[in-house]
Amino acid sequence: MSSPGHGAHLGAPRIAVDAMGGDHAPDEIVAGAAQAAADGSRILLVGDAERIEKALAEAGSQPGDDIEIVPASDVIAMDDPDPAHAVRRRRDASICVAARLVKEDRADAVFGAGSTGAALAAAVLETGRIRGVARPAIAIVLPFAPSPTVLLDAGANADVRAEHLAGFAVLGSVFSRVRFGIDEPRVGLLSIGEEPGKGSELVREATPLFEALDVNFIGNVEGRDIPSDRVDVVVTDGFTGNVALKLLEGFAKYLMGQLLEIFSASEDAKAAAKVVMPGLADLSTTLSPDSQGGAHLLGTKGVCIIGHGSSNAAAVRSALKIASDTVRAGLVAEIAAKLAATAEPRGEAADGGS
């Protein structure tokens, strides 16, 4: 794994995959991982070795130089009532072992589509936080034209302080630059009005902290700005961000369903559908969660992707490709360097722990 301060990763990225996490594990997870291995990544499949070998065979693959099986005897269920406690107590759970592979420098990234809470806890407790990160945040890429919008936090931290939001702004700015090549990503603070002074007490407290950051802060943005080209990174607390994300996903699904009904309502509509349907199909693919495969947990000592619980092979392949791309681009090192540069002028020695 690239150490903080070093450049982009050399060689095939090594990705630890929790093969047992998700609604369709291990078959769909293993199938997608096998495809990712064919794409050029080195995959470490973590979990029940016998079931993983069977799933690999069904996917037309087998262990080798690009696919390794790492046994783990336990699994944390999707509906576990206290996933953080489970991570602390059940060290041989597949997501814990997968995250620990990053800490041990056997992997550069970790992917899990099981319990989100368990993936969060394992990434923080097993992999550790980058120095200077108080709260890691979930970053979602929203594929709006002409350029994607990064929304964070999308659910890792329901309750935050103003300084946490400022930390998210730095994480999101670096991620947008590394992931999409935007030199100075425009960072906005989600509020109920664009004017300074609008919003909750939290937003008002965060504003001067944002203004002091070395990021391209453009002020408050509203919910309607999220799908626009006005902003590249939208920062909010995890509760609000998760609600916004689920609303956008639900509306996209509703909209596509309504369009399909409209274009099947009459013979004239069906004739029109033949013209526009290819474009709608492309739009549906773009808006599908499978196109991204999951969300980045930013701020940990290794690339961490949290997949949807319903991830299929296509979604897993997409997630692992993105993981590979961000490892190659040196995302973790870039975040560490930015945080170090931010802390030095103030003489800080913030330590994210491990």
Description:
The structure is a single chain. By secondary structure, this protein is α/β, with parallel strands linked by helices. It is 44% helix and 15% strand. The protein is built from 11 helices and 11 strands. The protein has helices at 27-39, 49-58, 83-89, 94-103, 116-127, 162-180, 201-211, 238-262, 267-287, 313-328, 331-343; strands spanning 14-18, 42-47, 67-71, 109-112, 137-142, 149-152, 186-190, 216-221, 233-235, 294-298, 303-307. An 11-stranded mixed beta sheet has the order 3-2-1-4-11-10-5-6-9-7-8, sandwiched between helices. α1 (27-39) crosses α2, α6 crosses α7 (201-211) and α8 packs antiparallel against α9 (267-287). The two termini are 16 Å apart. 50% of the residues are buried. Residues 1-7 and 346-354 have low confidence and may be disordered.
Number of strands: 11
Alpha-carbon distance between the two ends: 16 Å
Helix segment count? 11
- Looking at the chains present, what oligomeric state does this protein adopt? single chain
Query: Which percent band covers the strand fraction?
Result: 15-25%
Mean pLDDT: 89
Radius of gyration: 21 Å
Low-confidence stretches: 1-7, 346-354
> How would you write the strand order of the largest sheet?
3-2-1-4-11-10-5-6-9-7-8
Write the H/E string, N to C.
EHEHEHHEHEEHEHEEHHEEHH
Class from helix and strand fractions: alpha/beta
Report the biggest beta sheet as strand number plus sense, adding barrel if it closes. Answer: 11 strands, mixed
Shape: globular
Helix content: 40-55%
